[in-house]
Amino acid sequence: MQNVLEIVTWYKNNLRDLPWRSTNDPYKIWLSEIILQQTQVNQGLKYYYAFIEQYPDIQSLANADEQEVLKLWQGLGYYSRARNLLKTAKLVADKYHGIFPNSMEEILKLPGIGQYTASAILSFAYNLPYPALDGNVFRVISRLYNIRLPINEQKNRSVFLDILNEMIQGVDPAQFNNAMMELGAMVCKPDNPKCDICPVSTFCQAKELGCASQLPVKAAKAAKKKRYFNFFYIKYQDGFYLIKRNESDIWQNLFQLPMIETNTEVDISDVFTMLQEVVQLLWKELLVSGAHDLCYLNSKKHLLTHQEINARFFEINMKEKPTFKLENCIWVNADSKQNYPLPILIEKFLLSL
DNA sequence: AAGTCGGGGCC
DNA sequence: GGCCCAGACTT
Question: For this structure, is A265 an active site residue?
Answer without folding.
Answer: no
